[in-house]
Please model this.
Amino acid sequence: MKNYRNLLEESNLKTTPQRLAILKELDKQGHASIEEIYESIKEMFPSISLATIYKNINALKEEDVISEICLHHKPKFEIKKEPHAHFVCKKCGKVEDIPFNEIINEEIDKKYPNSQKELYIYGICKSCGNGNS
Amino acid sequence: MKNYRNLLEESNLKTTPQRLAILKELDKQGHASIEEIYESIKEMFPSISLATIYKNINALKEEDVISEICLHHKPKFEIKKEPHAHFVCKKCGKVEDIPFNEIINEEIDKKYPNSQKELYIYGICKSCGNGNS
DNA sequence: TTCTGTGCAAATCTTTTGCATGGCA
DNA sequence: TGCCATGCAAAAGATTTGCACAGAA
Model:
């Protein structure tokens, strides 16, 4: 993936250590909530403020650097990438990205042109589904 | 559709005027937020409390009478029905239910058995897309 | 040097909780 | 009558805002 600095330089946002840390965290976790980002960054960066996370998440969303998703109806964020669906394991909570074309009929794009799709599949992942409770 | 009273009698919840009003409102609006439900019911039922709406929405969700969805990443609720996707018009905000089988490949259920799906399509509806700005 | 970003504290939602009273079964 | 539900007020959580200072370009 592109480095985080480039993502910011291509947007209208200045590069700051806080923003780099947020992007790095999102990249590492894949999908994270405000609180998860905050808790994790605070360890490396104790002076960071929750308000800064909120402001930056909103700014990054505005600039289309990241996108918001709703896992179990709670807001999470991820670095923007090709449109994809999310598989969420109901047991272990693991989240996997799935390419849309594996799931959605082709005709859908003709039927609903210029549309954005959001798809979540809540099921049991392979590791959880092997007979072990 | 089934009358609201039956929906409650089949659950573990007592029938109350407030609950009937919430279900009626959801049925009428199709999809509504807590605040929308509250504002609307308050007109007919001025003494109702926001806390009552919250408690009942949670109870009804728990009993599987209603389900939660996220439109534009904001929580909304609808009376439980056959699983379906949601089409949301980006211009007028109208929400339409779409049967899953019109959209999703059959194989998906083999690939992800016992899974629940949530699909949102954000596009332009027919009335908004006819050339009129 | 300029302008935007940060961090703090306060303000503003949003949602939940506890408790006394009211109402369904 | 016995419980559960309601409504109020307070508490708790989540998010936004204002402002002085710091830091990127």
Remarks:
- Residues 14-16, 34-35, 50-51, 54-55, 58 of chain B lie near DNA strand C (CB under 10 Å from a C1').
- The interface with chain A takes residues 68, 70, 73, 75, 87, 103-105, 108, 112-124 of chain B (CB under 8 Å).
- Helices of chain B lie at 4-9, 17-29, 34-44, 50-62, 107-111.
- Chain B has five helices and five strands.
